[in-house]
Design goal:
Layout: E1 11-14, E2 18-28, E3 36-43, E4 51-54, E5 62-63, H1 68-78, H2 89-102, H3 105-124, H4 131-152, H5 159-170
Antiparallel strand pairs: 1-2, 1-5, 2-3, 3-4
Helix pairs in contact: 1-3, 2-4, 3-4
């Protein structure tokens, strides 16, 4: 969707921030000389934070939220998107970072599942879990759970359970 087509009170997903409400479209200057139209985005659950995104550059960073059907399809398709964790921690970090930067929900869901299962296996064997894996898991969850929560109309704490139940029904 063209960023110019976003209207006040639309909900959008701002890359790296999450679900936001378009509070205004304002003509502003941040350098003191040139004026430009900006989307004023307010993240959900944020009382005072706001972000100004140039309308002309918003297309790469701002999008409409997924629909419930798209969320469910991403969950369903995550089963077939197999991700394996390489033992080499440097390579593993790079692979995880690539998945997170691409932002594909299906791959992120598969990553969450893979790290979660790996973490559980390590703990059951009394092994230490890599801090980088724990951080990657939190980052991945923070990237998709708020949007899923918003789209599905459920509390963010219920998203993992929703995903688990949907995957169980599929099997």
């Amino acid at each position: 969707m063209n960023a110019a087509k976003f209207s006040v009170n639309d909900y959008v997903v701002y890359k790296g921030v999450g679900v936001c409400r378009v509070e205004a479209v304002e003509n502003k200057t941040f350098d003191g000389s040139s004026y430009e139209d900006y989307l004023k985005l307010v993240p959900l659950g944020s009382g005072s934070s706001s972000y100004f995104v140039p309308v002309g550059k918003a297309g790469a960073r701002v999008r409409k939220p997924m629909t419930a059907d798209e969320v469910n399809a991403a969950i369903d398709n995550s089963e077939s998107a197999q991700i394996s964790l390489t033992p080499n921690t440097k390579v593993r970090r790079t692979e995880i970072d690539t998945i997170l930067k691409e932002g594909d929900c299906t791959h992120i869901l598969s990553l969450i599942k893979t790290i979660y299962l790996h973490t559980e296996a390590c703990r059951s064997m009394g092994k230490k879990v890599l801090v980088s894996d724990e951080n990657a898991l939190r980052t991945a969850e923070n990237m998709i759970y708020p949007e899923f929560s918003f789209v599905l109309g459920i509390d963010e704490k219920e998203v993992a359970g929703y995903i688990g139940q949907r995957l169980e029904r599929a099997n």
